[in-house]
Amino acid sequence: MVSAIEIRDLHKAYAKGTKALDGVSLNIKQGEFFALLGLNGAGKTTLISILVGLVRASSGAVKIFGHDVADDPYMAKRLIGVVPQELNINVFNTVREVMFNHGGFYGLSKVDINQRYEVVLDDLGLLHKRDSMVKELSGGMKRRVLLARALMIEPKVLILDEPTAGVDVDLRQDVWDLLEKINKKGTTILLTTHYMEEAEYLCDSLAILHDGKIIDQGHKDDLLLSDQSRHLVLHLQSEIDTLYEQDYIQAVAKDSKTIELTLQPGADLAAYLQKIESSGKKIGYVSSPKSRLEQYFRSQTT
């Protein structure tokens, strides 16, 4: 069976000599939900940019369902839907216009677009906003539009770059549920996220990218200790001034930017994280204290 994404010995060096990718090789199977994890500057954005044809590799090969992104870019791009981290939509377009413009760009007829776009918007709770301009939407709604736009072309591969960044608690769980449904229908999903809980909840397999190299990869059950998943470590990017309280969650400050969490049955971690984010604190990542992922991230950030 042809792999959904095949990356072989991928290198990317920029004009000033900076190596963004240094011999990356990955094989993502059809129908897999795969997480790509790494600190800022690890090379994740460069890798995704090469996958979608925005950046050309210095050497190596990338294939999407057997189509080389350099030699057969049209077919490769046609198979990929992308949800970027940053909003890259004309905010003066209505949601309907966004869907029609994107569908037209990929060669869909007006008939096909009419048949698809309302179903996609309805699945994401956006149908009532179809005539609203993007600039009038909340941050969470704008994230939904990005996802709806990607799904409009019914991609075989969906690439998600921090899909729940800045999303409220209820929507985050809704997005997780929707992504699971999309994956179960056969769509291959590649996810980047700084929420370890998100990767553990959603993904089958994962790889850790650091300084342009894959330093670990495998099935999540081999890389994460599931029996430790309710004892978590929360790493902030700014110093703690308050230990937030919530039912079924015990929080203990380990240092000025690290909180150890103990979650009892019934705990709502997403709501707890949203409370912290709403206070203006930026979350770096959440992980399990005894997992290999936590050991790796701790070694790179302390």
From TrEMBL:
Keyword Iron-sulfur appears in the UniProt entry: no
Domain ABC transporter as annotated: residue spans: 5-236
Classification via PROSITE patterns? ABC_TRANSPORTER_1, ABC_TRANSPORTER_2
Q: Name one GO molecular function term.
A: ATP binding
Q: Does the keyword Nucleotide-binding apply?
A: yes
Do you know which InterPro entries this protein is assigned to? AAA+_ATPase, ABC_transporter-like_ATP-bd, ABC_transporter-like_CS, ABC_transporter_ATP-binding, P-loop_NTPase
CDD domains from the UniProt entry: ABC_subfamily_A
* Assigned keywords, A-Z: ATP-binding, Nucleotide-binding, Transport
What name has this protein been given in UniProt? ABC transporter ATP-binding protein
* Upper lineage: Bacteria, Pseudomonadati, Pseudomonadota, Gammaproteobacteria, Candidatus Comchoanobacterales
